[in-house]
Design goal:
With about 180 residues, this protein is mainly alpha-helical. The chain contains 8 helices and 4 strands. The protein starts with 5 loop residues before the first helix and ends in a 20-residue tail after the last helix.
Length: about 180
């Protein structure tokens, strides 16, 4: 969902794993040559989703990276299939009310520029939560823990699944980075 922490947690997770982080929205903006909001308004959601799908296909094929997708990426079945088959997908689940608390002053997300953003978040959640669950290998309930706690929760799930060896993942201090 928008405001779920995908980019922030993704960046910190990538540091912990020692791999590159890529934001699919930034990748999409490079492809369209302008901010998503401008493109969204000018070309419409369907055309934006076409370009987003191309970006996700390229990123999923790369491997060895942490990707944060846009919140609506799951609307396309091709994205859901690709993310589930080619990546280890993690759904950072937050309630619409928690997302609203985080996003109430945001002016950059086109879908939330409406008279009642909380209502819109509830509608988005009702539509997308089942799709996120279909795509994800792991669901992490975000609530209000700190970023380092969320990163550790993701790492723990990856370790339990045998996808990473926690003994090989440096702590933030060992890696010379402070996770805030």
């Amino acid at each position: 969902m928008p405001g779920g922490g995908k980019s922030t947690v993704g960046r910190h997770l990538a540091r912990q794993l020692g791999v590159p982080f890529v934001d699919a929205d930034a990748e999409t903006e490079q492809r369209i040559g302008c901010p998503i909001r401008v493109y969204f308004e000018r070309e419409g959601e369907a055309r934006f989703r076409d370009v987003e799908e191309e970006a996700i296909a390229a990123l999923a094929a790369r491997g060895g990276i942490v990707i944060a997708t846009g919140g609506g990426a799951v609307l396309r079945e091709a994205n859901r299939r690709r993310l589930h088959a080619q990546t280890t997908a993690v759904y950072l689940r937050s309630t619409p009310e928690e997302l609203f608390r985080r996003l109430r002053h945001d002016t950059h997300r086109p879908l939330l520029q409406v008279p009642d953003p909380l209502r819109k978040l509830r509608e988005l959640y009702a539509e997308r939560d089942p799709l996120y669950r279909e795509t994800a290998h792991f669901v992490i309930e975000t609530g209000r823990p700190s970023i380092p706690t969320l990163v550790n929760m993701v790492l723990m799930q990856l370790e339990l699944a045998g996808l990473v060896d926690a003994r090989q993942v440096p702590s933030p201090v060992e890696a010379g980075r402070a996770v805030r």
